[in-house]
Design goal:
- This protein is an alpha/beta fold.
- It has nine helices and 13 strands.
- Strands 6-10-9-8-7-12-13 form a seven-stranded mixed β-sheet. Strands 2-1-3-4-5-11 form a six-stranded mixed β-sheet, sandwiched between helices.
- A hairpin with a 4-residue loop joins strand 12 (291-295) and strand 13 (300-303).
- The protein is globular and about 50 Å long.
- It starts with 14 loop residues before the first strand and ends in an 8-residue tail after the last strand.
- The model has no long low-confidence stretch (mean pLDDT 94).
- Residues 178-294 form the LD-carboxypeptidase C-terminal domain.
- The active site is at 112 (nucleophile), 209 (charge relay system), 279 (charge relay system).
- Belongs to the peptidase S66 family.
Length: 311
């Protein structure tokens, strides 16, 4: 979809709806999330999926699908925040009535497994969504104040200075690129290849992130995207801090940097590693479907156009 729909900005006092479209959350995590969001000055509504558990899912597929749709239909809810990722978004991606979302656009936030929903909502409905922190991360050691301050700044429409790289930054191909952002979790993007919900990367800035994967596994996922032509027409690539898993004792590896350079150096487009988005702290918010500018020599990313409509 070429048209872009921006949601209305979030203001103090607005209602945030909490859903779990993928994995379940613990009761204590949900309680902390509600308490923290209330403390930030927002009203909170919880969907049925927020308190459900069906093995590794937050309730059966029908519950999670209906919950997502009902939050977009609810006139009191201004923003929909996902509580956690895990696994399950791809199970409902073909069950959603996307016309509901198109007719009732609003802020939608999450990352990791939620990548599948970001891509589907943007490409089917045209709505800009937000790759950012999730509700379960308002608990204990996972809470990062900077992540949430940035999230609310972006959602309110306030200017955010260009995001800096993290300590693991290195440039792969220096240069500057501007355009619409797409992407997210590498595992989810790979899983959707060959389906109607695969990511469209043409003329986009591509964000890739993942966590706890060995070098050979990331190699395999990148290679599948390469073979599917997903790197052929991108304007630039932003690689997050992947926080690699340790290689198995009986499985020798190759240097991670050398591996990713084999994929991206030949493209000759701006690319860098070490952006703080996704499974890292801080987790900077970026608009999927929004306009960004990347400077891969400096490892910086900037939102260049307000991704929300002022209210």
């Amino acid at each position: 979809m070429d048209s872009v729909i921006k949601p209305e900005a979030l203001r103090p006092g607005d209602t945030i709806g909490l859903i779990a479209p993928a994995g379940p959350v613990r009761e204590k995590e949900l309680e902390n999330c509600i308490r923290m969001l209330s403390g930030f000055g927002y009203a909170v509504k919880t969907g049925r999926s927020a308190g459900k558990a069906y093995g590794y899912l937050a309730g059966k597929d029908s519950y999670r699908t209906e919950d997502l749709e009902s939050m977009f239909l609810d006139p009191e809810v201004k923003a929909v925040f996902c509580l956690r990722g895990g696994y399950g978004s791809l199970r409902i991606i073909d069950r959603i009535d996307y016309e509901v979302i198109r007719r009732h656009p609003k802020i939608f936030v999450g990352y990791s497994d939620i990548t599948a929903l970001h891509i589907a909502i943007r490409q089917i409905c045209g709505l800009v969504t937000f790759h950012g922190p999730m509700g379960a991360e308002l608990s204990g050691e996972r809470y990062n104040e900077e992540s949430w301050n940035v999230l609310f700044s972006v959602l309110s429409g306030r200017d955010v200075e260009g995001y800096p790289p993290n300590e693991h930054f290195f440039s792969i191909v220096p240069g500057v690129a501007e355009g619409e952002l797409t992407g997210g979790n590498l595992s989810l993007l790979r899983s959707a290849v060959g389906t109607p919900y695969e990511v469209d990367t043409r003329d986009k800035i591509l964000l890739l992130e993942d966590v706890n994967e060995e070098v050979y596994a990331i190699d395999g996922m990148l290679n599948q995207l390469r073979l599917a032509g997903k790197f052929e027409h991108v304007r630039g690539v932003i690689l997050s801090d992947f926080r690699l898993a340790e290689p198995g004792r009986d499985k020798p590896s190759i240097p991670f940097r050398e591996m990713i350079e084999t994929f991206f150096t030949p493209l000759g487009i701006p690319c860098f590693y070490g952006f703080s988005a996704g499974h890292c702290r801080p987790n900077f918010t970026l608009p999927i479907g929004g306009k960004v500018r990347m400077d891969s020599a400096r490892g910086r990313v900037q939102i260049t156009e307000p991704p929300v409509i002022p209210t």
